[in-house]
User: Fold these one by one.
Assistant:
Number 1:
Amino acid sequence: MQFREAQLDNGLKIIAEVNPSAATLAAGFFVRTGSRDETPNIAGVSHFLEHMVFKGTARRSAAAVNLAFDEMGANYNAFTSEENTVYFASVLPEFQTDCMDLLCDILRPSLRQEDFDIEKGVILEEIAMYEDHPHFRLYDNLMRRHFDSHPLGNVILGSAESISNMARDDMQAYFDRRYSPTNVTLVGVGNLDFDAMVDQARRTCASWQRLEASRVAEPSRPVGSRGVITDAKLTRQNIGLMCQAPSGQDERRFAAQILANVLGDATGSRLYYALVESALADDAQMTYSPMDGEGALMTSVSTDPEKVAQVLGVIDEVFRKFIDEGLGEAELQAAKNKIASQATLSGELPMGRLTSVGFDWVYRSEYVPLARQIDVMFAVSADDVLTLAQQCNLPNATLLTLGPLEKLPA
């Protein structure tokens, strides 16, 4: 296993975790842009642009792009978050040149007006579809309520209004600014030839125009408000709580990962036993999201509307008991073992390591081998986790529910 890095004259960063014993390779472009980098008039443009990247280039039509991936037998996709847009593919080593050529090509899409108009309809359908999913609705509205006017509260898909009013030129201007090579990292993992990867990127990407892409870095100021979204069509009450947590640059992120596992892992956690095993809820989880300069712990629960008061009481009791008493070594070790197992199983394949290697570089400009990542996590103490829980102020989290209830129980 060897880590390699390079940078083109235009600022494009290239990194790789080279593993000659791997059976495949994975490669991807990590673009440091997402919904937090949008203004209200172009809300949703990052995700819309992700779709458009696959709609053709000066060299390839949309059909040719898809066919080229299929002919390599590639596993490929893309995703957009509040902070990043990632395009990736996994192939056999003999297809490295073809895969890199295709990924580099699609990162400079044509953005044709006809494709833009057609895809706008697709995005509007996606927005409507998400409105039918309580989990997504709750997440979007909870992020907006928790982060308030901070751009991390921006909805990834945008709104029907912002997408409908968006012009192709708006997208082009956003692309020119945010897809500058200074804001992009090319990441490779697995059985690959790094020197060939750099040479190919230099031939294909050196002409990309260099611009500076800034990001609003003001800290958020959550106030811990409470709210209800009433939807009489729903039969379940969906509960979301969110509080501040360590950022993606904070060393306490490992303690936050353990805290979320102990309190809200999908099975075997304190919330699971207190709510799901006791038949008070059909789902109860806590997730940790490290972000650029910010972080969040989100608790999500699905329950019967008549049980909301009891469920909220149990959640508060679980949080306060943890803050008062902390956790024992056995519970701490079990959480660490689960996290280590998940990371190791994911890291066995280059595709599983790609996002970890990529985001370590995007957020902290560092390479962290999997073994060292696990060692650092195992070094976290029970006191570290307890201290973090007290700092996060879990009982005073932002609260939002979605379902048939018209108001929160007293």
Note: The two ends are 58 Å apart (CA to CA).
Number 2:
Amino acid sequence: MQNIIDTPVNRRGLLSAGIFGGLAVAAGGTSVAAPLIPAPRLRPEVRARALAAMSRHVGRIKVRDLIGICDFDDSSATPRFHLLDVASGKVDSLLVAHGRGSDPSHTGWLQKFSNVMGSAASSSGAFITAEEYYGNHGRSRRVDGLDGSNNNARARAVVIHGAWYAERQMIAQHGKLGRSEGCFAFGESDLAQVMARLGPGRLIYADKVDRA
């Protein structure tokens, strides 16, 4: 059972300081190290932007029951990829890595977006999920960018895939996830869920509201 940090107070300072050690009691009563995962939160303003993106691209988004929303205002130690059931409002939140070009110093926080070839950065905006394939990272799904901020996504090989460096144990060891080449990289333990629920024709929306 994961431990939860459920406070916004000095969240960034705590994460930057690497305070992620914790204790979880195993069945036999032995204390074992476990990562402290900050409580997930889908902020209303990010949700509103994602729904606006769906309306803006309604002609392209044919399957509108579920949206993947990536809130890059949160650190990589926070479950910041939100699967929103549009009808019920139910949200499931997962860990996801950002691109190394978006965080050159590997702070755990996305610093910038880029749509430039070779940038290895994450891009912002609306994406549509496309075909599944097996590549260098195993089971993967291509995405196409729908905005000027991400329309090079396919050419840049920005995809959904699993990665060892996106597992929660990375937080216990390093206080943050590793970085991708700009892809939406999930822990292998979460990949099957993402692939099943974000099939072809669905919206992924990525943003960072506070860009100051």
Note: The chain has four helices and twelve strands.
